[in-house]
Amino acid sequence: MNLPSATALSSSLFLHFSQTRALSCALLPSFIFGASASSSSYRLLRSFNINREIIRNMSPSPNEANDDLAINRIRQQKQTLRRQIRSRIKSAFPPEDCTANLLSQSNRVFSRLFTLPQYQAAKSVGFFLSMPTGEIQTREAIKRIVDDGKVLFIPRVGLDFEKCDMDLVRAVIPLTSDVKADRHDEHMFYDDWPRNKWGIPEPPLNEGKAENEVQFTTSSSLIAQPGDIDLLIVPGLAFDSNNNRLGQGKGYYDRFISKMRNEGEKKPLLVGVCLEEQFIDLGDDGTGSIPVSDHDYIMDMVVTPTKII
Predict the structure, then answer these.
(1) C-alpha distances out from residue 31 to 22, 23, 28, 166, Å
(2) What is the model's pLDDT at position 133?
(3) Rounded distance, CA 49 to CA 20, Å?
(4) What is the Cα–Cα distance from 106 to 304, expressed in whole angstroms?
(5) pLDDT tier at 206 (50, 70, 90 boundaries)?
(6) How many angstroms separate the CA atoms of 248 and 148, rounded?
(7) Which DSSP helix (H) or strand (E) runs through 181?
(8) CB neighbours (10 Å) of residue 118?
(9) In whole angstroms, what is the distance from residue 16 CA to residue 126 CA?
(10) Please, is 3 exposed, middle or buried when counting C-beta atoms within 10 Å of its C-beta (0-12, 13-18, 19+)?
């Protein structure tokens, strides 16, 4: 609901007060002098009632007010939960000594993912590049996806972080014997890409790379359209037993999924992946679930180091 500015509201209230006073003054001549003054008094009374109705319409209805309260309450609950999960992750995986446990959990998650019939049947996979710390690590999993011959789509946010929008772009990987052998080296095809503000490599904006290297273009024909991605691996700050997801708060994935599933499109299948510290078990009474809004997408599946939901 569009609320009036303070200036507009103040002007209307002043008008309301002024006309109330004017009305009192106008009715007095009508009482004293009779019908000759009644016509103008009536017009003033009608004007007064119209402006009073305008002021009444400026106030939110009870339903609108309740909706706003609910939205704000969910937003606050999400922020509180984000702080709790980030603190839990920081304690479990301190930046100075987190490699072994983090890689162990990550590998267990993707070992489960690769056994899924949905993964094996997928021809195309949308997959994220992980942040350097505090998140499930995807480097080894990407090697496996490439070796499995899947069409790989990788997120690109770009430079306009305030827009909170992203695309997934298809990586074009030549399958020559030299390049295939290089995939098993430490160097990965995205290591030379520029990094965004979170330290995550992103597809460069230039067209292509040198010969015999993994090529990446930003041709519009390579940007994912509805129906292009069979399976989308979705990161998140937390997931729960109802397959609800809590993101970082910018809405990148919810907006992207909305674009992909536009006009009744059922693809991609949404698979959330997370560490044990990011998974929230519901209580017996159903409490403890992640608060969700209308625009939040529920995952089709969630994979943790110990379970598939």
Answers:
(1) 15, 12, 5, 71
(2) 79
(3) 10
(4) 9
(5) low
(6) 30
(7) helix 177-182
(8) 13
(9) 59
(10) exposed
Place of tokens 């020559």: 176
Among residues 108, 109, 184, the alpha carbon closest in space to that of 143 is found at 184
Distance CA 64, CA 231 (A): 38
What's the CA gap between 132 and 139, in Å, rounded? 10
Counting residues of the chain whose pLDDT is more than 70, the rounded percentage is 65
Beta bridge partners of 301: 271
- 70 CB burial (10 A radius; 0-12, 13-18, 19+): exposed
Bridge partners of residue 296, in order along the sequence: none
Answer yes or no: is pLDDT of 77 > 80: yes
**H or E element: which one contains 56?**
helix 38-58
Q: Are the C-beta atoms of 229 and 168 separated by less than 8 Å? A: yes
Alpha carbons within 13 angstroms on the beta-carbon side of residue 13 total: 9
Contacts of 124 (CB under 8 A, 6+ apart): 150, 151, 152, 153, 228, 229, 230, 231
What is the tens place of the pLDDT at every residue in 213-261? Answer: 444 445 567 899 999 999 999 999 999 999 999 999 989 999 999 999 9
First to last CA, the chain: 39
Higher pLDDT: 178 or 95? It is 95
Query: Residue 121 phi/psi, 5° resolution?
Result: -85, -15
Q: Which two tokens stand for residue 303?
A: 């994979």
The CA distance from 234 to 23, in Å, is 65
Closest CA to 292 of 101, 70, 135, 51: 70
Predicted local confidence at residue 283, as pLDDT: 66
- CA torsion sign, 271 to 199 to 174 to 108? negative
How confident is residue 264, by pLDDT bands cut at 50, 70 and 90?
A: confident
